[in-house]
Amino acid sequence: MTTLTLRFKKANSSGFLGPNGAGKTTTINILTGVTKTTSGAASILGYNLAKEPVKAKEHIGVVPDTSNLYDEMTAWANIIFCAKLHGVPKEKREKRANELLELVGLYDRRNDRLGTFSRGMKKRMMIAAALVHEPEILFLDEPTTGLDVQGAREVRGLIRELNRRGTTVFLTTHYLEEADLCCQRIAIIAKGKIITQDTPEKLKLSTQVEQVIEVSFDHTKDVSDKLKRLSHVRDVVTAGDKFRLSVDDSSETLPLIFDFAKENNLKIVSINTLKPTLEDAFVKLTGLRLEVMSIEKEQMKPNRG
Amino acid sequence: MKIYFLKGPNLIFGLLLPISLFLSFSIGRSVDLAFAIPGLVAIAAFFGAGAIQAIALPLERRTGTFNLLLTAPISMFAIVLGKALAGFFFGAMLSVAYTAIMIPFSPLPNLPVFFVGIMFSSFTFSAFGMLLSAPFRDIPQAMPPATVVRIAMIFISGVFIPLVAMPTFLQVVAYALPLTYSVDSLRQAMSGSINTQMFLIDLGAQVFFSLVFLAITVWVLKKTIE
Question: How high is the ipTM of this complex?
Fold first, then answer.
């Protein structure tokens, strides 16, 4: 890791987006006191992690990428244990455990051992355990990696709900969709360096060189040459039954397309202005192939003989 | 309890190994029980407390639960002390159990003092176990070196062979080992005539060893998270 300077707003949901091996987990480990920096300093809410680690850790909750809870203990016992670790007063512990188990939808399984839980349920339990002391900042390292579609959807919903309630969320992910859905601000990291950081929409716009209008008509005949002759249209590409028009100004071009349809007796089936996706932004900004984002951690580990 | 105490290696090293060693050195010989019982109780604490530590730290580091402790607002010393207490309880529990079994065979004139000796010994051996397991991240890595060190120590700490019967250089080594002071304190309590000064020296030495072991463990753990 090289020097990183990150600034995220309070009560925001921020993400660290990058391929596996980019340094996301290392960063989160440094910020949560699991790993020390070899040089430089890391601070949480003004508390230097090397000099005042206990003070800094009072304000954070951590959800690592693999379970940090005890499989041998019940869901309830794990939450109570975490409450004790964080010094939650005895009279508050049980109330808080009830609230959190309700929040993550595991209250009915409170007396079951964690070892019997699915990955998704364990992840929700880890989120509950991390929130037991009502931290100001919640760190989540790859919160949906290894989860099935339903499990991932539940965890993402939970993250958004927590943020809506005012918890500052900082997550790492190599899923572009997750960063787009869960984060108000994203830092893109590659090879231990921050490439850029901004809101998802601004990141997308920053890579936009031209505007695109996608239109489909009720006829399948090729009208691309005619469309090309419209003013403001720079290029037309056929994509299935649709035409993608690269234009200088979509607001000027849209009325022209409606007129064109009328003049040529064509009925418009659909018409959309296309925005660049976060994928487009990522590829453009990092210069990396999109496939690197789908390499999971397990595939990156060296073989152990 | 389930997480630490009921693990297979604990039962083997904590329960079976001390009694196996005791029987192999006692059967077929005329053994002075006042000499042998403190040795048995000391090695029960030694292996019991140590076995927990060979499991607690490396297992927690492998499963990831140690990170839960690292991210909590508690100091590394508090984490280490908490783990040391787990080993202390297991070691003390086993030693008290062995003492209860042995009482019918040999009188124990200073039972409270004997228990004091057990408590100090169990904590010292738990701290020693922490030190031996601190560099490792898995049980198979931690167990072999710890077992070799412990087995070697019991032969030069006066458990089975009196210190006076050993060569001078081994006696010097023996006084640098915590087990020697544990065995001596328990033997004094067993004998009925306690040399208070020597007993306090035994306890003081164990406190000293405990603090040194805990301090080095904290240092090693801090280094390994860098």
Answer: 0.81
